[in-house]
Each structure stands twice: as C-alpha cells, then as structure tokens.
C-alpha cells in the first residue's frame, strides 16, 4: 500500500482527501480549510493518505507528542469499506510506535456507536472514564462530548490532563 504524507493543501491528493473528509464527519467535527492548512504546517501533525492499486483507500490524521499519538481524524473510502483496510491502517499505526495511541469516539448510544466501539476494542483500545468535551472546530458550534479511548491500557489522570491541554492549546490552535 502506498502511503503519502500531505504537507500542504496544494498536494495532489489533498482534494481527494478533502472529499472523503467532508462526507465522513459532521460539519461541527471538521477543520475549516484554513485550519487544515495551518495544521499541515505543524511538524508533529501527520496527514497520511493511503492508496492501493491507484485507488484512494482512506486517510489517518494524527498528532505525535512526546508520550502519545493522538488520532484526530480517520476515514476509509466507502468503495473499500468492509475489506479490512481500517483494521490494517490503524493496526500498522499502532505497531509503528511504542507510544500510547489516543482517539475519541461519540458516546455509545445506539447500534452504530456500539459497532464502532467493538471495532476499536478489537484493535486493543480501552475506554477511559474521564468526562471529555472536544473544543469546537468552528466558532458557530459548541464543544461536544466524546469518549476517550487509548491503546492497550487506560491512561492516568495526569496523561488525560496533558492530552486535554495539548488538544486545546496545540491541536485546536486556529
């Protein structure tokens, strides 16, 4: 599988990434174009796009910090969904680091969110019990409650506080 790290909105794969990004997440969970452009300039922000046989498979957008990796956004193209690519991409990311991997999911309230939690559990993620509100991506929205998952083990209160601070001050910097 071919992996391409995007560095700017001018990269050839950016429009393909953006199409999948815009249909995969509700508007309140999306960076604006300008916010995405700024993120791409950060040394510790990685937007990896995946292709196989010239077919766009999906992307993983993540931040690497000293003690952990935070997956901010991740999506698989509906053209290949259900073929194991999601498990493969996340499995390879987790295996590539000795750091804890953190991500957020919607609260588990229905069958779809239960299925999503089962998917992440199968990859070794565990739920953390910290009440967590993700800051708004855009001024017209409010923060939204999410569940924090971490790979392999629960994170400590101190680790959660560091993640939450990095999220507010670095990831969400406009």
UniProtKB/TrEMBL annotation:
<dbReference type="Pfam" id="PF00583">
    <property type="entry name" value="Acetyltransf_1"/>
</dbReference>
<dbReference type="GO" id="GO:0016747">
    <property type="term" value="F:acyltransferase activity, transferring groups other than amino-acyl groups"/>
</dbReference>
<feature type="domain" description="N-acetyltransferase">
    <location>
        <begin position="4"/>
        <end position="147"/>
    </location>
</feature>
<keyword id="KW-0808">Transferase</keyword>
<dbReference type="InterPro" id="IPR000182">
    <property type="entry name" value="GNAT_dom"/>
</dbReference>
<dbReference type="InterPro" id="IPR016181">
    <property type="entry name" value="Acyl_CoA_acyltransferase"/>
</dbReference>
<protein>
    <submittedName>
        <fullName>GNAT family N-acetyltransferase</fullName>
    </submittedName>
</protein>
